[in-house]
Amino acid sequence: MKQIEKELVIIGGGPAGLAAAVAAYDKGLRDILILERDVALGGILRQCIHNGFGLHRFGEELTGPEYAARYEQQVKERGIPYMTETMVTELRADRTVVARSAAMGIFEIKAGAVILAMGCRERPKGALGIAGTRPAGIYTAGTAQKFVNMKGMMPGKEVVILGSGDIGLIMARRMTLEGARVKAVCELMPYSGGLARNIEQCLNDFDIPLLLSHTVIDIHGKERLEAVTIAKVDERRRPIPGTEQTIPCDTLLLSCGLIPENELTAQAGVPMDRITNGALVDGDRQTEIPGVFACGNVLHVHDLVDYVSEEAAIAGEAAVRFLRGESKKSILVSVKTDGKVRYTVPQILTEAKDTRLYFRVSDVFRGKKIVLKAGDRVLLEKKTVKLAPGEMETVTVKAEWLSELAEGEISISLSD
Amino acid sequence: MKERNLTCIVCPRGCALTVRFDGAGKITSVEGNACKRGVVYAEKECTHPERTVTSTVRTEGGAVVAVKTATTVPKEKVFAVMKEINAARAPRSVSIGDVIIENVAGTGVAVVATANI
Ligand SMILES: Cc1cc2nc3c(=O)[nH]c(=O)nc-3n(C[C@H](O)[C@H](O)[C@H](O)COP(=O)(O)OP(=O)(O)OC[C@H]3O[C@@H](n4cnc5c(N)ncnc54)[C@H](O)[C@@H]3O)c2cc1C
């Protein structure tokens, strides 16, 4: 097996991997290699042709491919090496990366530092457990997005969508524009996980009904999907007898959440967060294995790519500091959540500097305060109007609080 | 006094806007917006709503390339715009920003490529 050495290996050439590479380069590192299994750089953004990306980062509204192209250009201008059609199949705790490609065969890279940027995949139907037959015509929303936007092929004409995450909403509009009839978007929860603007411009603009507290309970059709039966659900998400209705359709799209692609991470023995399904990280986005960093959707699911780029730049710069022996771990503070706040990233703080915590809540909350505490001492209270699971929130932990604390815990919670 | 509730679509924040009108149907106030763009959006949305259209165009080579209207177009023209986009053909090789249709559906707005191929 061919063996090479690299200071920094980045697994995944999506927006996270590219932004991490650019940040590392701009910190002075040159020996970088990006490994991407797809035919081109850009990640999932290549198929997200709608606009709405980059308002934070570039101050203008870009489409997904345009946003990805800006980072791709930055990578190419700097001459940062990358390999496409190269799949990483193994990661070891000593930062050995095993990859394979048609050009190189199987090869091994001894890396000084590794950045995990593998993104996430969609929760498939098998994981949802819907009763009924298994005909053709059932796709995840992202697969349909790839067919329509990358291949120019329509998966069907009469569509029901299960799940109101952003990808489902975006696909409701996309299929409608291409001449399909989207009959309903069913959402199990009493609220949508998607952005309010997408409900407005993707559903309301086309009079597509959003059925909250509804789910698909049966699938009909032998060769091709012919209909689905939907029903209303109670507070415990159980179908309510008598509320069933059968909707004829040839296509069912599933937009039921994203799962971080962490097989390699787990294989290397990186300790994981059970809530995010990503690695546990500190403010540098360093995992508990020294020199292994994570950023983007592989770390926790982001809805805005602008935040992905921001997080990736943190990881990219920190990897360079690690390689130069400049990372300083002066404190050890873990961040605890109350369940209403589901998780934070980072989960661990190892440096006494101002650190932004990114977090999500478990339900829709109105008029709550975000409270940050060390023991009984209240560090910060922040009033909010509305918090929703679909929207990532942030709060900044101040350096002075951390240096006083040195070790132990801070907690983040919601209160009235 | 009449009222209309809107969700602002200018940015991911998605502010809930309340627009009030006088007897003659003129806007008297916009509330709920976090920034000035919300007022501009509300005024447009209540007089002549506009949208950006994004789609794909088939190239001579058989692949598809992503496109968008260079600016927003009147909302009622969205399907007319789609019809012309679907009838159009792009060259085999296209770069971001290349004009694919000059004046789409009589809107005066161009359709431009958003990907390189
Ligand atoms: C179907 C879908 C649609 C989405 N639509 C939107 C949207 O409309 N708007 C929005 O803001 N966000 C959207 N998102 C979220 C979007 O993923 C993020 O905003 C952003 O693209 C995340 O960047 P990333 O680099 O972390 O992940 P990705 O863009 O997913 O990139 C990860 C890259 O890693 C590569 N990779 C993974 N494993 C390996 C391996 N073992 N070896 C080599 N390469 C590997 C993948 O091929 C991929 O290119 C969508 C996500 C999905 C899954």
Account of the 3D structure:
Chain A is an alpha/beta fold and 416 residues long. Chain A folds into three domains: 1-121 and 258-327, FAD/NAD(P)-binding domain, CATH 3.50.50; 124-256, FAD/NAD(P)-binding domain; 329-416. Chain A has nine helices and 29 strands. In chain A, strands 1, 2, 5, 6, 7, 8 and 19 form a seven-stranded mixed sheet that branches. Chain A has a five-stranded parallel sheet with strand order 10-17-11-12-13. The radius of gyration of chain A is 22 Å and the shape is globular. In chain B, 32% of the residues are buried. Chain B is elongated and about 55 Å long. Helices cover 19% and strands 35% of the residues of chain B. With 117 residues, chain B is α+β, with helices and mostly antiparallel strands. Classes of the chains: A alpha/beta (416), B alpha+beta (117).
List the helices and strands and how they pair.
The complex is a heterodimer of chains A (416) and B (117).
Chain A: E1 2-11, H1 15-26, E2 32-35, E3 51-53, H2 55-58, E4 62-63, H3 64-77, E5 82-83, E6 86-91, E7 96-101, E8 105-116, E9 120-122, E10 138-140, H4 141-151, E11 158-162, H5 166-177, E12 181-187, H6 196-203, E13 210-212, E14 214-220, E15 227-232, E16 245-248, E17 251-254, E18 258-260, H7 263-267, E19 292-294, H8 305-323, E20 332-337, E21 341-345, E22 348-349, E23 355-361, E24 365-366, E25 369-374, E26 377-383, E27 386-387, E28 393-397, H9 399-405, E29 407-415
Parallel strand pairs in A: 1-2, 1-8, 2-5, 8-19, 10-17, 11-12, 11-17, 12-13, 20-29
Antiparallel strand pairs in A: 3-4, 6-7, 7-8, 9-18, 14-15, 15-16, 20-22, 21-23, 23-28, 24-27, 25-26, 25-29
Helix pairs in contact in A: 1-3, 1-8, 4-5, 5-6
Chain B: E1 2-7, E2 16-21, E3 27-31, H1 36-47, E4 50-51, E5 54-59, E6 64-69, E7 73-74, H2 78-87, E8 89-90, E9 99-101, E10 111-113
Parallel strand pairs in B: 5-8
Antiparallel strand pairs in B: 1-2, 2-3, 4-7, 5-6, 6-10, 9-10
The complex binds flavin-adenine dinucleotide (FAD).
Flavin-adenine dinucleotide binds next to helix 1, strand 6, strand 9, helix 4 and helix 5 of chain A.
